[in-house]
Design goal:
mainly alpha, 1 helix
Length: 46
């Protein structure tokens, strides 16, 4: 494997991790908040 390929892969890995942090983490936070809100709503209804 040439060093340029390894370098490109390393950059790609960092980029995908940044994209993962930018897209998935806020989505996960929204999902947890939504599920918590639903649990609270069902708790107050009962």
């Amino acid at each position: 494997m040439s060093p340029s390929v390894a370098e490109a892969r390393r950059e790609l890995g960092q980029q995908t991790m940044e994209e993962y942090a930018q897209t998935w983490l806020p989505r996960q936070r929204q999902i947890t908040e939504c599920s918590a809100a639903k649990a609270l709503a069902s708790h107050f209804k009962a």
